[in-house]
Amino acid sequence: MATREYKRKVAAAVAIGLAVVAAANLLAARLLPAPAGCVETARNPYRFRDWANYVDGMRAREGAACVALISDSQGYAGEWPAHKGYAARLEALLNERKTGGFERWEVFNLSVDGVTPMEYMAAAARLREEKPTWLISVSGSADYRAENFQKGFAYPRSDLVHLPTEWKVAKRLPWSFWRRHGKVEDTLTAWVTHRFALLRVRDFLWSWLDTRYPGAQKAFYAPRTTYRFWQLPGRARMAPVPDPLPSRGGEVLDLTYDGKSTVLLAEFLDQLAAVPAEHRLVAACPLKSDFAGEHGGDWIAAFRKDLERLAAEKGLPFRDLTGAMAPEDFVTSNHLHDRGHRKMAELLADHIAAEMEK
Questions:
Q1: Range with the lowest mean pLDDT among 62-71, 167-176, 195-204?
Q2: Ranges 104-108, 150-154, 162-166, 216-220: which has the least confidence
Q3: Could you tell me the CATH number of the domain that includes residue 145?
Q4: Number of domains in the chain
Q5: CA 153, 117, 296: angle at the middle one, nearest 5?
Q6: Residue 137 domain-assigned (yes or no)
Q7: Category of 114 on φ-ψ map: left (φ > 0), alpha (ψ -120 to 50) or beta
Q8: 8 A C-beta contact, residue 160 and residue 76
Q9: Helix (H/G/I), strand (E/B), else coil: 336
Q10: Could you tell me which of 150, 112, 108 has the C-alpha nearest to residue 131?
Q11: What 3-state class would DSSP assign to 68?
């Protein structure tokens, strides 16, 4: 076969292959159902929230005041129905009191359970396009654990890490962020998944299987990410399996807070300071105890000290809420009881009112 003829055949085969892939991608985009709604439903058990559209929803408010809350599992409150978490209760209180003279308040809960600094950074960088009335960050030392320092985008459990693959968000993140977290394979995977509907067929099929056989996704696939695009309706064909794959080797989560953690915290606060919010609050989350003299107590104290110092350097109002509640307001060391969520909502509502009356 002549070289020229061979090249023509190879080029034709490549063109046909690309056309088939493009057609399949277009077909997937048209035929797959819409992902789990996130504007109407703040949470779903698969941790997929379609973050770009979710944050865009903050703009659709005629005359309403907006609170953007960024927090961890305490704010996410997965152990309670969404309407019982302190974010929802805060919204109800602000509306009931007509705080600041506004007839309507909306609280957007951008909290993530098991959050990482990568997710914090992505959310804050995306919020720089918005102008919330209030920007509130409530976090703890474990959110910036040293273990996160050089992880890639495959490590976080939510789809927030898709946002930095958008240029408008990526350019706001410091080079140090990309040097640490921009692993080639992880970043490319996030970028491709975010843009090509054909790859969502895999997620759709896993969602379908996990709907019919709860726990199947983790049992057969066990991905590091545990979110799914879809929370599909359907009748389960077996009882849910909470954790079919127990922790390998019984390893303990590393909660170390050290100099690396301080770097992560400082970068996040830089992003918060750049969000054009009218009012801000940076707070250390409430805890059952400050654990002074106990394991982890030194880390918690170091975090509080760093948070107060760095917030002052960046002009961010700070409150230490570590001891704001009684031990009986907690179900774990940092997860709130129902009454704890009620008290947290009242505390934040009072703070917002006091600041807006100045």
A1: 195-204
A2: 216-220
A3: 3.40.50.1110
A4: 1
A5: 125
A6: yes
A7: left
A8: no
A9: strand
A10: 108
A11: strand
The answer as to whether 26 is a domain residue is: no
- The whole-number pLDDT of residue 249 equals 47
Contact 48, 227 (CB under 8 A): yes
Judging by beta carbons within 10 Å of its beta carbon (0-12, 13-18, 19+), is residue 239 exposed, middle or buried? exposed
- Please report the beta strands in 37-119, taking only residues with DSSP state E, as ranges in sequence order: 65-71, 105-109
Phi, psi of 331 (to 5 degrees): -100, -25
- Domain extent for 288: 53-153+255-356
Beta bridge partners of 71: 138
Return the residue matching tokens 């389960």.
236
pLDDT digits (tens, 9 = 90+) for 288-332: 998 887 877 899 999 999 999 999 999 999 999 999 999 999 999
**Which pLDDT does position 287 carry in this prediction?**
95
pLDDT digit string (tens) for 58-85? 765 677 899 999 999 999 988 888 889 9
Q: Is residue 4 a part of any domain in this protein?
A: no
Three-state secondary structure readout of 17-47: HHHHHHHHHHHHHHHCCCCCCCCCCCCCCCC
Determine which helix (DSSP H) or strand (DSSP E) holds 176, and give its type and residue range: helix 175-181
CA angle, corner 86, sides to 81 and 91, nearest 5?
105
Cα 268 to Cα 123: distance, rounded to the nearest angstrom: 10
Could you give the maximum distance between any two Cα atoms of the chain, in Å?
A: 84
